[in-house]
Specification:
By secondary structure, the chain is an alpha+beta fold. The protein has two domains: 89 residues, Glutaredoxin, CATH 3.40.30; 110 residues, Glutathione S-transferase Yfyf (Class Pi), Chain A, domain 2 (Up-down Bundle). Helix content is 51%, strand content 8%. The chain is built from nine helices and four strands. A four-stranded mixed sheet has the order 2-1-3-4, covered by helices on one side. Strand 1, helix 1 and strand 2 form a beta-alpha-beta unit. Helix 1 crosses helix 7. The radius of gyration is 17 Å and the shape is globular. The two termini are 28 Å apart. The protein binds glutathione. Glutathione binds next to helix 1, helix 3 and helix 5. Pfam families: GST_N_3 (PF13417). This is Maleylacetoacetate isomerase. It is an enzyme of class 5 (isomerase).
Length: 214
């Protein structure tokens, strides 16, 4: 049997995406919690830094293969374990799904990452109020364009009526938006799809509050 270990953190959106993928594909895995807050951030400790010099979670070990970057990890899982496909095979849909996923995971998520917020609050001395404004602003900018794109692509889910990589990126990003009180009434399509997805058992099992380190 394949030994599979996910190094993550309950509130990490990138680890959350991978947890959903593993659950949808019904793959067993054990979790190792890397506490991003305590002890100066365990992602910076030598043993984790040796595993991933980027000092970011997640890392997935699949047998002897070490994988980083959530989008790349999910693409790997989709190729290796084709049950419940997450990236369509048809060319137009495939690249639309990848682009929408990147709209979230590359254009929205990284500028609100923990280390960015720590820099804003520390070196740049932003108050908590201003830091939260920053956070909300970049989600709202990203969600406004995403909402327009989903008006074209969505059905039941982000890409028609099939679950896809975009859905795995959407739910953790909406979780973050809610944490920072983004007014989701401005984004009815995102809100509708998120409400559908968060009732799915694979998404429920992957939710931050349901992780052992929560
Ligand atoms: N592009 C990476 C992003 C990984 C990432 O930003 N992880 C965050 C948690 S969501 C992290 O480890 N942050 C630690 C820090 O900022 O120090 C991926 O998709 O895997």
């Amino acid at each position: 049997m394949t030994e599979r270990t996910l190094y993550g953190y309950w509130r990490s959106s990138a680890a959350y995406r991978v947890r959903i993928a593993l659950n949808l594909k019904k793959l067993d895995y054990q979790q190792v919690s890397v506490n991003l807050i305590k002890n100066g951030g365990e992602q910076h400790h030598a043993h984790y830094s040796a595993l991933n010099p980027s000092e970011l979670v997640p890392v997935l070990i699949d047998d002897n293969l070490k994988l980083t970057q959530s989008l790349s990890i999910i693409e790997y899982l989709d190729e290796q374990y084709p049950q419940c496909p997450l990236i369509p095979s048809e060319t137009e849909a495939k690249y639309r799904v990848k682009a929408l996923a990147q709209d979230i995971a590359i254009d929205i998520h990284p500028i609100n990452n923990l280390r960015i917020l720590q820099y804003l609050a520390g070196e740049l001395e932003l108050t908590d109020v201003k830091k939260a404004d920053w956070y909300r602003h970049w989600i709202e900018v990203g969600f406004h364009s995403l909402e327009k794109k989903l008006a074209q692509s969505s059905g039941h889910y982000c890409e028609g009526d099939s679950l896809s990589l975009v859905d795995l990126c959407l739910v953790p990003q909406v979780y973050n938006a809610n944490r920072f009180n983004v007014d989701m009434n401005a984004f009815p399509i995102i809100e509708r799809i998120n409400n559908t997805l968060t009732m799915h058992p694979a998404f429920i099992a992957a939710a931050p509050e349901n992780q052992p380190d929560a």
